[in-house]
């Protein structure tokens, strides 16, 4: 796991040595801040559901943006040849990059804490444990989207293509439970189970259900495994 | 000992490497020579496990790349073509990253860093951002990364590409120095590069081995020719020159204002300069100029890589 830690560290330095992390984080915080503050005082509820909903929507753009270069940039610039000829395995590379993306998402979520503090100040006995569960849920959904982003980045050398691939997969998963009335009834159960919103809605209410956790972790493992396979197959092409 | 055994690599339908086999002895500097697109980089990428072969295998000591790629990579230092580096990192962080992955940390890292800085001439740039370094220093950084873990095998793909003449001399001298204690494979499409550094060369063309041997071996087996350029005054007919030896050809006779320029061609195995001079004296002509041009290694390389299946 030392190799994973070293790649994670390298990626974090790369994020913060350039402008990408700062720009995406600022945009992420501005959009969420705007959504939150423009509705919070109108709705008058002592919870952060508005924030959680806006974050899960902003994720659709934010996470593909931070992961699009993770592997495709290495392939495009040729540094993958350096990395892949070090005595490490493909899963070290994928995990190192995945954890760094999750850390960046965690940093983004950390900076939404002023909204939480605002709620503590002006709210009426907010359900703290539900809010904490909501944040854990947001981090898990973020990690799930990050695994999709890493996969999108692994399949293309072009960052824009990587962004679009991840965006389309994430958007489809986001959309599934919003189009249930348009699909035949035999499909609606499957689509609902595949949709991110269905699983996140429980967590954002403070309910920890093992089915939701199994779904999120399964998707993460699935896309990370797929990313590792893509890197392995590249050697044989 | 490295053994490349019937190695073949396809990219889709394109055969980049076509059933090649050769050996590299321990401590040997092998020059891997061929025109662009000949299959050099593909072969090196397979040795370093960046790519896997379509068929065949590579054996390094008791290991092979299909089963022991991770262990093989521990013993290889590799400078890829175009020297890809993380331009946002500084030299120190980059070397530390690659060394840490190879398990060199703490005091061992600092000690080795000093040696590598001295060996590669990285004084004064160790804390500079790689993206802002000159091409020469970037190349040194790549080389430093490849030798940091003191590998038994060093693989350098076009190590002097894009460098100025002074930098080329420095890098070649460094490679020679490293070659005293390591097995080195150096790839290039420039013959002088290989001539200056390698003990032995493998010439590859269109994915196949066109020649394999020391420079002397290759030249001695190559039936080249000598061209003797003469400028003679006071002669009317030059038929007598053809009679010096049965294998002499008069390939050019070009009259000038007061003299004639002549080119004679004969096999490399002959040296007819004395006979030609004596004939000129005997005929009472005036010799204004005599130059000999022998078929060189460049010609050999050109012939081997221009003609498919050229023979040495």
Largest interface: A-B, 23 and 28 residues
Element string of chain B (H = helix, E = strand): EEEHEEHEHHHEHEHEEHEHEEHEH
What characterizes the major β-sheet of chain A? none
Q: What's the domain count of chain A?
A: 1
**Tell me, what's the shape of chain B?**
elongated
Major sheet size, sense and barrel closure of chain B: 6 strands, mixed
Number of strands of chain B: 14
Class per helix and strand makeup of chain A: mainly alpha
Walk across the major sheet of chain B and give the strand order. Answer: 6-7-8-3-9-10
Low-confidence stretches of chain B: none
Helix content of chain A: over 70%
The mean pLDDT of chain A is 90
Radius of gyration of chain B: 25 Å
Q: How would you describe this protein?
A:
The complex is a heterodimer of chains A (237) and B (312). Chain A has 237 residues and is an all-alpha fold. Chain A has one domain. In chain A, 81% of the residues lie in helices and 0% in strands. Chain A is built from twelve helices and no strands. In chain A, helix 3 packs antiparallel against helix 9 and helix 8 packs across helix 9. The mean pLDDT of chain A is 90. Chain B has 312 residues and is an alpha/beta fold. Helices cover 34% and strands 30% of the residues of chain B. Chain B contains eleven helices and 14 strands. A six-stranded mixed sheet of chain B has the order 6-7-8-3-9-10, sandwiched between helices. A four-stranded antiparallel sheet of chain B has the order 2-1-4-5. Chain B has a four-stranded antiparallel sheet with strand order 12-13-11-14, with helices on one face. In chain B, a hairpin with a 2-residue loop joins strand 4 and strand 5. Chain B is elongated, with a radius of gyration of 25 Å. The model of chain B has no long low-confidence stretch (mean pLDDT 88). The chains are: A mainly alpha (237), B alpha/beta (312). At the A-B interface, helix 1 and helix 5 of A face helix 2 and helix 3 of B.
């Amino acid at each position: 796991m030392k190799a994973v830690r070293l790649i994670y560290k390298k990626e974090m330095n790369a994020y913060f040595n350039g402008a990408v992390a700062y720009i995406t984080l600022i945009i992420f915080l501005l959009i969420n801040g705007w959504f939150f503050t423009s509705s919070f005082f109108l709705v008058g509820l002592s919870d952060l559901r508005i924030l959680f909903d806006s974050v899960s929507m902003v994720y659709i753009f934010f996470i593909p943006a931070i992961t699009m270069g993770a592997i495709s940039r290495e392939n495009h610039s040729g540094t993958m040849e350096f990395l892949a000829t070090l005595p490490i395995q493909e899963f070290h590379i994928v995990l190192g990059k995945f954890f760094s993306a999750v850390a960046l998402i965690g940093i983004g979520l950390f900076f939404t804490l002023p909204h939480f503090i605002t709620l503590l100040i002006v709210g009426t006995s907010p359900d703290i444990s539900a809010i904490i569960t909501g944040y854990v849920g947001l981090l898990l959904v973020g990690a799930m989207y990050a695994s999709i982003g890493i996969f999108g980045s692994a399949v293309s050398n072009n960052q824009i293509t990587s962004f679009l691939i991840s965006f389309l997969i994430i958007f489809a998963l986001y959309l599934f439970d919003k189009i249930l009335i348009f699909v035949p009834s035999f499909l609606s159960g499957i689509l609902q189970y595949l949709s991110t919103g269905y699983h996140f809605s429980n967590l954002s209410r403070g309910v920890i259900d093992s089915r939701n956790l199994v779904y999120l972790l399964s998707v993460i493992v699935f896309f990370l495994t797929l990313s590792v396979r893509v890197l392995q197959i590249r050697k044989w092409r | 000992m490295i053994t490349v055994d019937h190695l073949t690599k396809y990219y889709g339908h394109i055969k980049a490497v076509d059933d090649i086999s050769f050996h590299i002895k321990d401590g040997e500097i092998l020059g891997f020579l061929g025109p662009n697109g000949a299959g050099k980089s593909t072969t090196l990428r397979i040795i370093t496990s960046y790519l896997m072969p379509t068929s065949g295998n590579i054996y390094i000591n008791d290991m092979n790349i299909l089963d022991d790629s991770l262990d093989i990579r521990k013993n290889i230092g590799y400078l890829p073509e175009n020297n890809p580096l993380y331009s946002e990192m500084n030299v120190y962080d980059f070397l530390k990253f690659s060394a840490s992955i190879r398990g060199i940390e703490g005091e061992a890292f600092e000690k080795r860093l000093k040696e590598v800085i001295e060996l590669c001439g990285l004084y004064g740039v160790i804390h500079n951002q790689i993206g802002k370094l000159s091409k020469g220093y970037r190349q040194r950084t790549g080389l430093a990364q490849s030798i940091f873990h003191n590998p038994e095998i060093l693989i350098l793909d076009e190590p002097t590409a894009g460098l100025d003449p002074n930098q080329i001399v420095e890098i070649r001298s460094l490679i020679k120095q490293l070659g005293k204690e390591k097995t080195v494979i150096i790839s290039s499409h420039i013959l002088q590069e290989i001539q200056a550094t390698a003990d032995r060369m493998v010439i590859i063309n269109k994915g196949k081995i066109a020649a394999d041997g020391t420079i002397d071996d290759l030249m001695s087996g190559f039936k080249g020719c000598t061209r003797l350029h003469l400028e003679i005054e006071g002669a009317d007919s030059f038929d007598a020159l053809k009679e010096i030896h049965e294998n002499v050809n008069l390939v050019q006779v070009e009259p000038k204002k007061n003299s004639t320029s002549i080119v004679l061609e004969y096999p490399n195995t002959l040296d007819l300069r004395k006979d030609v001079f004596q004939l000129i004296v005997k005929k009472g002509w005036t010799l204004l100029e005599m130059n000999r041009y022998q078929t060189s290694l460049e010609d050999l390389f050109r012939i081997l890589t221009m003609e498919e299946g050229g023979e040495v």
